[in-house]
Amino acid sequence: MLNSFARAATALLLAAAIIAGVLLALGASPIGVFAALAEGAFGSWYALTDTIVRATPLIFTGLAISVSFSGALWNIGADGQLVAGAIAAGAIGPYLGGWPRPIAILILLIAGAAGGAIWGGICGWLRARRDTNEVISTIMMNFVATQLLSWGVHGPLIEASGAYPASTPIADSARMYAFFPPTRLNLGIGIAVALAVGCYLLLFKTSVGFEVRAMGRNRRAATFFGIPIARLTIGILALSGALAGVGGAVQVSAITHRLYEKLSPGWGFEGIAVALVARLNPLGIVASALLFGALDNGSQAMQRSQGVSAVLVQVIQALVIMILLAFDTRVFAGLRSRIAPATPTMRPAAGAPSDA
Amino acid sequence: MLEAFLNSTISMATPILLAAIGELIVEESGIINIGIEGAMLSGAFFALSAAYFSGSTALGLAAGIAAGLAVNAILALLIVNLAVNQVVAGTALDIFAVGITGVFYRRLFGITGKAFIVTTIPKLSFGPLTHIPIVGPVLFRHDPLVYFAFALVPTVGFVLWRTRYGLGLRAAGERPEAADALGLDVYRLRWQALLAAGILTGLAGAYLTLVYAGTFVENISAGRGYVALAVVILGRWRPWGLAAASVLFGAAMALQFGLQALGTAIPYQLFLALPYALTLVVLAAMGGQAASPSALGEPYRRA
Predict the structure, then answer these.
(1) At the N or C end, where does chain B have fewer CB atoms within 10 A?
(2) Are A132 and B283 in contact (CB under 8 A)?
(3) Is there a domain that residue A46 lies in?
(4) For residue B76, is it within any domain?
(5) Residue numbers of the domain that contains B80
(6) ipTM of model
(7) Structural domain total, chain A
């Protein structure tokens, strides 16, 4: 645990050093930028609470990545799954007016989970039954979700006046419990942490979790031990999608209260960085999501005061991923992607002499 | 209207085709490259920056190519030499490119408020041929890069399937161990494939800024790099298949603009989603990806 913490810390420091170099080259002050990031993330009560709010969707997508990557299923579609969950929640939300609040919120979250589970589950089914590369299918499903959302808020879900590309607001009863207004702190973080604990128990304390991790280590060997690879593949990607989908529903319930285009700024991709820093450990993901949430939050203030784009944070995310990958080649070689068919078949090379 | 649509289809297909041919070369060498979007976006930004500051389109194109090469060199280092997970490394480079181009863009142009505009590459002149109905707008109203992209299709097909070099490259993608045993340098072949793809993808990015837009907006590639991935599958790893699939995606994009301009009630989002859904259907129907290189995505470590 300490070892992985040290690795993550080293990766962050290295990333910070590279960023400092880039900033100097651009004529910005690295110290000013880092100070503004910290100030924006932790400098006030409001900043602190908003760091938690911004970390919340990252916990959900981080968990989605953790569950799928643990089984060596490369889900690049957490973003689309989150959006699918949000669409389901945003579509059902306006009709929950008559329900008691806990029930209405629960229905909204279940709708989100179902939306995400369908999005991930389709890719799981394609992988298990049609041997379709999940990397490609999850990426394609991202685009389908984006277009579906765009169509929804311009078409069937558009708000009453029809003037803005946004959906009808969800009922008051379906809005997440909020704490300490005017901050945006809400029960969403509690749900996220509870699911993190749940994922930890599932992965490390149950036989199913053992099977998932065994499959992640070596898919073919897992088959020989009688692990139901096909069922597990569908299940993992459906669960992964459901986790991201709940994240989308929480965002709708707690923050936006409606759907609009470009709902996610790329949380599904950021979740990859979050999960890798935590070395796929669900409990570690809470901490790592708070770190990236702080960066996201601080970047807004940094952009205003330092004249450096907030997307600097994405450079940091990417550098951290690359550095950790380079550090950790052994670990991730174990989780090697199996993209080619299990039994390699030579394909006839058109008109060329055999290369066997 | 129809002519404008057809003309726009070919133009929209061009950067996708360039990137897809690059991806084909890379995949035939046994690597799956998710970082196309990153190389394209970098190519787009640095091509425009160079063209803006130097006033030279040629230098712009060169800078776009250099940016694509740089991104793919990082990828090659991670994927070929360190044998890290190809999917995660590629995704990281995509995120990296969004960040780094955004930071440079705001720093260089956001503050000054100066218009970040260059003259776009002009179309070639074919005289009276331009005015032939249907054929004119499809074949004879384009910039030089369009012809370059489509000329690459048979060229790359020839090199990959009819030359000794192509045979070696594909051997690295089918059976790297066997290729190695025959004395081929798998690392070098995969590096070369990624660098070739870097050139083409950088050029694809340059196309977005130097031909379409004449300017840069953040995230201008808008997912075209991922589209190129889909095109390789839809085209079933065959150069002319790639060209056909690129034209299909190009048509979907051109149709979107057409429908939006007309203000019709037809939801253009469905047309935009269609090619992606179609890719999924084709993947599902193919089952087992019989046409993909056997060692695709497998890191190779020399014994």
Answers:
(1) C
(2) yes
(3) no
(4) yes
(5) 2-122+138-286
(6) 0.89
(7) 1
